[in-house]
Amino acid sequence: MNVLVVLAIILFVLMALIGGGKGIRSFVALFLNFGVLLLTIIIMSIPTINPLIPTLMACTVISCINLFYINEVNRKTKTAFLSTMITIVLLLFFIIMVTEKAKIQGFGEEETEEISAFSLYVGVDFVKVAACMIIMSAIGSIIDVAISIASPINEIYRHNPSISRKALFTSGLKIGRDILGTDTNTLFFAFFGSYLGLLIWFKDLSYTFGEIINSNVFSAEIINILCAGIGVALIIPITAWITSYSLVKQERKSKGIRK
Amino acid sequence: MNAILNKLKNMTPIQIGFYIVLVICFVVSIIFVTHNHAHYDSPIAKVTEANLVNTEEVTDINDNQDKRFMQDIMAELQNGQAKGQQIHLENEYSSSGAYDQEYEVGDELFVSIDENKEDNNLTGSITDVKRDKYIVFVAWIFIFVLLIVGKKQGLFSIISLAVNATLLTYALDVYVNTESMRLLWVCGISAVLFTVISLLIVNGFNEKTYTAIISTLLGTFLCLAITYFVLWITSENGLRYEEMEFLTRPYKAVFLAGLLLGSLGGVMDIAITIASSIFGLYESNHQISIRELKTSGMNIGKDIMGTITNILFFVYISGSIPMLILYFNNGSPVVFSLSMNLSLELARALAGGIGIVLTIPIGVYTAIFFVKRKKAKS
């Protein structure tokens, strides 16, 4: 038996047992996401295509899967979707600037052994690939924050329709603050878990602090974590604002019709 | 402008002091990283002139088209005995830039100086880019964004990140310096410390935190145990350890320890969400029945388990994007490339998902245990 198959079956059974119908949808969404991600990587590897285009398209599709498929199309998911897209585009500009400046694309010296068998002149722009990689690693948590803010703001509004736009926005920010810490933590541990080998490598080969900080692999990883964290923080006010704006605007419109 | 002034007026002296210290730290650290050349042993040169001397179209054995460029670079040494002298460097780069890059005027590079120098014309070769200032710069943006958006909670999360990073480095030091220490033990003990410290920093000493700590630890170690068991019954069939990068230690230990740390964050996330919502419900209505608490807790868990598992999937898999592109463009079949590059990442993500889902009932029942105790007391 294959490890991955067994783990996937266990995950499916658990999700179905504990989550019921929604659990099964979550599991299916995982595999759809995985498929989209793979397809994107395959398209990205075509040299004539700018990697940013498939990445942005993939972000759109992935947001649709995670918001509309798992949670249905409604006001909550629509505003969450809009906020996600705005955040991603803003973040992407920043990330491209940083990756170009810091030259953290491609492979580092520590990876020479792995890549020695390959031709490196593949014609794909690795600077853009690096930017895409950072966006992709953050997309999961960005969507997570968007829906976890949009949904409670809608609940507050439902229980208290006379609430002002500003009060809605403030309560959205407050909810966001509670999620901020746990989501940055999730990202942090996921990154360090996957680069544990690198950290031990640095210690075993007694790299100096300066060598570690300036090495391609390490700085790429740190910048990746930090940019993902910036994305998670940025989406909080964006979602809070868009959701409260659209809710209160809708209210005024319906009042106008009644008049 | 008035709003800003009003805000300033409403601040306590402690807050004002904090912001002043923060700004001082920011300025000092930026000045330091832009002028720290003397602290490096290896020579650093700043590019003053970069000229393109040669362009060449290349086609590799897999028919990939690329361009190769030659650059002639003059740079000024920033440290060491030859400080202030010009050095002549050559740089070869491609438009794809997988292992090379173009340099522009103003870039700072680590170089090695050739020994046989004639008159004033130093020559040398480029070894790496000085990236520290960019890291510090992005780190400050991260800190500011977190503080502006998150206020106090933002500060707490920065503190807990810093504490966790320090702890992790210390734990790895202990591991590397002690011959007999097993990596999994070191990481297991660190995981307990991470959980206790992060949750206490953010939530303080109360039943909510204890619930979150207990369910995080149970969830993470149960997840590790299940993975261990699966590896054992399948005799690790389908895992490609040979593709693990940066290995100086037994691969299986590194893999499992990474899996433990990686799932810890996601499990902690779901544990704290469930704990705080159940205690929130109880605080707002002391008469609420245990049954209702259980249903609400499970419902919240259902809502978020998909998105948190997704976070792990995306983080793990996007790390392999550059390597996958290299495989695909070097004519490796898709299935082979995927199994080579993604088996470990997928295993980690699936195992993390198992931990996350399992933590939902664990968290609900632990919270109910504490709520019952509270009810009995009152």
Task: Please explain how this structure is put together.
- The complex is a heterodimer of chains A (259) and B (378).
- With 259 residues, chain A is an all-alpha fold.
- Chain A has nine helices and no strands.
- Chain A has helices spanning 3-44, 52-71, 75-102, 112-115, 126-159, 165-194, 196-204, 209-214, 216-258.
- Chain A is globular, with a radius of gyration of 21 Å.
- With 378 residues, chain B is α+β, with helices and mostly antiparallel strands.
- In chain B, strands 1-2-3-5-4 form a five-stranded mixed beta barrel.
- In chain B, strand 1 (44-59) and strand 2 form a beta hairpin.
- In chain B, helix 4 packs antiparallel against helix 5 and helix 5 (207-233) runs antiparallel to helix 6.
- The longest helix of chain B has 46 residues, at 132-177.
- The chains are: A mainly alpha (259), B alpha+beta (378).
Task: Please give a handful of descriptors for the protein shown.
A: 259 residues; mainly alpha; 83% helix; B: 378 residues; five-stranded mixed barrel; 9 helices; 5 strands; 64% helix
Gist of the model:
Chain A is 83% helix and 0% strand.
Tell me the distance between the termini of chain B: 51 Å
Instruction: Note the quaternary state here.
Output: heterodimer
Question: What is the end-to-end distance of chain A?
Answer: 68 Å
Q: Helix proportion of residues of chain B, in percent?
A: 55-70%
Largest sheet of chain A, in brief, is: none
Q: List the strand order in the largest sheet of chain B.
A: 1-2-3-5-4
Give the helices and strands of chain B as they follow along the chain.
HHEEEEEHHHHHHH
Radius of gyration of chain A, whole Å: 21 Å
Instruction: Let me know the average pLDDT of chain B.
Output: 91
| Biggest sheet character of chain B | 5 strands, mixed, barrel
